[in-house]
Design a protein that fits this description.
The structure holds 2 protein chains of 2 kinds.
Chain A lengths: L7 H11 L3 E2 H11 L8 H13 L3 E9 L2 E8 L1 H31 L1
Antiparallel strand pairs in A: 1-3, 2-3
Chain B lengths: L8 H17 L4 H12 L4 H8 L18 H12 L4 H18 L9 H16 L9 H33 L3 H5 L1 H8 L1 H11 L5 H22 L11 H20 L3 H7 L2 H15 L4 H15 L3 H28 L6 H4 L10 H26 L10
Classes of the chains: A alpha+beta, B mainly alpha.
């Protein structure tokens, strides 16, 4: 059975983690960069999404460090997480390919 | 000088906090902060600490007149208060980490959490509470909702029965035409609890169907009430306030049956203690002419309910239909200093103040909180891998 499509913040978090293990603040800045400043994740949304991803075993904890006397926890993508992201990319790619092709045809007739 | 005395963990932590404040004030840049923090956290004597802080003014000095230092401590306290909304188990793992992210993301001048940040954290807390935990155990609220779907029809039945018992002598003395319609009147009074029972017993799979049925039942109930409003109904169940109470109960019952494992699981979990306490509370609430007896009974119920986690969830969830009955009369007592003249009529919701009445207003407020909870619960229930049918 196919999964429900990923919501945009979740998709962006998985994309950010696809580059390598990152900590919470790193994910937030990376998501802002990937979306071109459009999506600005806040801590509450980020951690609720990470909790759900962790329960679904799409991400897991990589390591913990103490920086500036504060705890910093790094997260990484699991193999299932990478597969899920790949699935989502394929779904979006096929839809956007159809849309792009039709727009080209539309542009061609004018 | 005390330079040769050894430092404690608390002394080093205090020096680190001072360094962070100097960085926030702009006296140090990031590289210097890291270097001095490392030195401070490794300092063995007060001499080491003084060397780290030597060229930095005490925080009370060298301030521009009229400018306060940025209160990072206040910001951190504000964030910790907001993080307290998260479940204790989640907080024990994630609180420090989230605090680190929040403090890093906050710009330097910020002294307390912004409204947007506060709302985001609270909504995140609601979502985390609704999500299942990693080891697959059902969150406590789902089992509690299953029990609510069993107990709620019981509560509504009892409160209605008490009202009917009070209204019966007056009703039978009424005009002959209404005496002839007695069986219909009786059925009308019990429409509420019957509707709730029907909602839980009907095997409706799709949430949309269930929601529509609930809404239709509610509207039918209100229609029947307004038809009877012309009759001799001095106990006054047929008012907008009474109707909003039933709508609220219907909403809660629908949430209970949809988002929980179902009526069967509720029947498995419910114990005689829960049933007995609920019956006592419902009867006490319906006979509010003895306010102090009511308080005593409810305190006993609350104390016994708090012994188990299921009991705690039940107390919260069942306060939604019972709370308006309990708390609004006491608002009157506090505001008017003593029993208001219409206290006895209050039981059935017949209040002459305003179209909705305080019971209706309290129900509306409870409905808002219930709505937030239902929305979050449904979102989390349906954002799982497969769209599982609601009853397992």
């Amino acid at each position: 059975m196919t999964d429900l499509p990923l919501r945009e913040p979740t998709f962006l978090i998985l994309t950010a983690l696809a580059a390598g293990p990152q900590h919470g603040y790193g994910i937030m800045t990376d998501v802002a960069q990937i979306s071109g400043g459009r999506v600005r994740l806040r801590a509450g949304t980020l951690y609720a999404a990470l909790n759900r991803l962790d329960t679904d075993r799409l991400v897991e904890v990589d390591r913990e460090e103490i920086v500036d006397a504060r705890l910093r926890r790094y997260y990484r993508l699991t193999p299932q997480g990478a597969r899920r992201l790949q699935q989502e990319v394929e779904r979006m790619r096929s839809t956007t390919a159809v849309a792009a092709q039709r727009l080209r045809l539309l542009g061609g007739t004018s | 000088m005390d330079d040769h005395f050894r430092t404690s963990d608390a002394d080093r932590a205090r020096a680190a906090a001072m360094l962070r404040d100097h960085f926030a004030a702009g006296r140090l840049d990031a590289a210097e902060l890291d270097e001095r923090l490392a030195a401070a956290l490794n300092a063995k004597t007060f001499g080491d600490l003084h060397r780290v802080l030597a060229d930095l003014p005490g925080l009370g000095q060298a301030q521009q007149p009229g400018r306060l230092p940025p209160d990072r401590g206040g910001l951190e306290r504000g964030y910790r208060r907001l993080l307290a909304c998260y479940p204790a188990a989640y907080r024990s793992v994630h609180e420090e980490e989230m605090l680190a992210v929040l403090m890093t993301a906050a710009p330097h001048g910020q002294r307390r959490p912004r409204i947007g940040e506060a709302a985001d954290l609270i909504w995140g807390a609601v979502r985390v509470r609704c999500q299942p935990s990693r080891n697959g155990a059902e969150p406590g609220w789902r089992d509690a909702l299953a029990v609510v779907s069993v107990l709620l029809p019981l509560i509504v039945f009892i409160t209605t029965a008490v009202h009917v018992a009070g209204a019966l002598p007056v009703y039978l003395d009424g005009a002959p035409i209404f005496r002839n319609m007695f069986p219909l009147w009786l059925l009308n009074q019990f429409t509420g609890p019957l509707a709730l029972l029907a909602l839980s017993l009907l095997r409706l799979q799709r949430i949309a169907t269930r929601a529509t049925v609930a809404l239709l039942i509610g509207l039918a109930y209100l229609a029947i009430l307004s038809y009877w409003a012309g009759g001799p109904d001095p106990v006054g169940v047929s008012t907008i306030a009474g109707g909003s109470y039933i709508m609220l109960a219907l909403g809660l019952q629908m949430a209970a049956v949809t988002a929980s494992p179902g009526l069967r699981r509720g029947l498995q979990l419910v114990t005689w203690k829960h049933v007995a306490l609920t019956v006592i509370a419902a009867v006490a609430v319906a006979i509010t002419s003895y306010p102090w007896t009511l308080v005593v009974i409810l305190v006993i119920c609350a104390a016994m309910a708090l012994t188990s986690s299921l009991g705690r969830w039940l107390l919260v969830l069942l306060a939604i239909p019972l709370g308006p009955y309990v708390f609004v009369p006491y608002v009157y007592v506090i505001a008017w200093g003593g029993r208001p003249p219409h206290m006895d009529l209050y039981v059935a919701g017949l209040i002459p103040t305003g179209p909705l009445g305080p019971l209706g207003q309290a129900c509306a407020l409870a409905a808002v909180f219930l709505g937030v909870f239902v929305v979050a619960a449904c979102r989390e229930s349906f954002r799982s891998r497969k769209l599982a049918p609601p009853s397992r």
